[in-house]
């Protein structure tokens, strides 16, 4: 896929149009132990307030997650994950028409979330961790994000190694997409994510980011989430809460390479950065910048 090529991503009954600027996916962790904001939005009212705030700030998608996938994280039961996610999802859906994604690898959670109004399943196991997940996505017609991860959240950062990280990640994503299409999932509903920070060293992450156009050659929307991640801490020697500048710089780098969806904690700042980049690129091409 060429950089900034217009694309449609079909998610449930919604068609997300992606043009010269990427879609912004706001991260809403309703967990007590996520790496950056664990516990901050564990309370339903706080989570709903933050979700609606992100929608007002310009988020195209709100990604709600009820189980931490940080390195070393322990798994939670589906019932507990549902208790965290569903009340927040239902409340946001009542108040807003924003597109909602559920960040889960459990079919039972995905099914309930989709029934409650979610339109995307964001699965760190690329729909392979739960044998029923593939059928949930196929039957519902939901959009799905297939992410690359080496191992599990509990083990992924234990000595990750690759022969060629770019080729292996690209090959995995392409093969998973093809397998799902062959099983009956529509290609136009799929997006792929190289999984920055999921079973990768600092060098692996940097190599993937430097080669994003080649990863997107499977012709699907490319999603990148790098907001506040530990590799940025390694580069800047800053804690997770102090990585906004590094997160924005890395995100802009991704935007310039044509990434179609960026997954971020800081929606307002990210939207501003994307608008500035879009105006500069339009001017460079001799087009009028949209400053509305």
Q: Please, could you describe this protein's structure?
A:
This protein has 292 residues and is an alpha/beta fold. It has one domain: Dihydropteroate synthase-like (TIM Barrel). The chain is built from ten helices and ten strands. Strands 8-7-6-5-4-3-10-9 form an eight-stranded parallel sheet. The model has no long low-confidence stretch (mean pLDDT 91).
Q: Percentage of helical residues?
A: 40-55%
- Report the CATH architecture: Alpha-Beta Barrel
Average pLDDT score: 91
CATH class: Alpha Beta
Radius of gyration: 18 Å
Largest sheet: 8 strands, parallel
Alpha plus pi helix count: 10
Oligomerization category of the chains in this entry: single chain
What is the count of β-strands?
Answer: 10
Q: What's the arrangement of strands in the largest beta sheet?
A: 8-7-6-5-4-3-10-9
CATH topology, what is it called? Answer: TIM Barrel
The helix-and-strand class reads: alpha/beta
- Following the backbone from N to C, one meets helices and strands in this order, namely EEEHEHEHEHEHEHHEHHEH
- Low-confidence runs of at least 5 consecutive residues: none
List strands and helices in order, with pairings.
Layout: E1 7-11, E2 14-18, E3 23-29, H1 44-57, E4 61-65, H2 78-95, E5 99-103, H3 107-115, E6 120-123, H4 133-140, E7 143-147, H5 165-182, E8 190-193, H6 202-210, H7 212-215, E9 223-225, H8 230-236, H9 244-256, E10 261-264, H10 267-284
């Amino acid at each position: 896929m060429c950089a900034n090529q217009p694309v449609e991503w079909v998610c449930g009954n919604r068609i997300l149009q992606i043009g010269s600027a990427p879609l912004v996916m706001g991260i809403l962790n309703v967990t007590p132990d996520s790496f950056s904001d664990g516990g901050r939005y564990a309370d339903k009212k706080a989570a709903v307030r933050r979700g609606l705030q992100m929608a007002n700030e310009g988020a195209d998608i709100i990604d709600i997650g009820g189980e931490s996938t940080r390195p070393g994280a322990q798994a939670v039961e589906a019932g507990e994950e549902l208790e965290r996610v569903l009340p927040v999802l239902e409340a946001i859906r009542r108040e807003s028409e924003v597109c909602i994604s559920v960040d889960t690898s459990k079919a039972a959670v995905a099914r309930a979330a989709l029934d409650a109004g979610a339109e995307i399943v964001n699965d760190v196991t690329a729909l392979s961790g739960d044998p029923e997940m593939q059928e949930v996505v196929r039957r519902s017609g939901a959009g799905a994000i297939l992410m690359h991860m080496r191992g599990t959240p509990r083990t992924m950062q234990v000595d990750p190694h690759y022969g060629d990280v770019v080729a292996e990640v690209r090959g995995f994503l392409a093969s998973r997409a093809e397998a799902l299409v062959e099983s009956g999932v529509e290609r136009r509903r799929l997006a792929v994510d190289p999984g920055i920070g999921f079973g990768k060293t600092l060098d692996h992450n940097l190599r993937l980011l430097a080669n994003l156009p080649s990863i997107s050659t499977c012709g699907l929307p490319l999603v990148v989430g790098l907001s506040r991640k530990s590799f940025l801490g390694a580069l800047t020697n800053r804690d997770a809460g102090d990585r906004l500048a590094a997160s924005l710089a890395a995100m802009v780098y991704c935007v310039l390479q044509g990434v179609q969806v960026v997954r971020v904690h800081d929606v307002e700042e990210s939207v501003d950065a994307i608008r500035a980049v879009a105006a500069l690129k339009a001017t460079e091409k001799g087009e009028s910048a949209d400053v509305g």
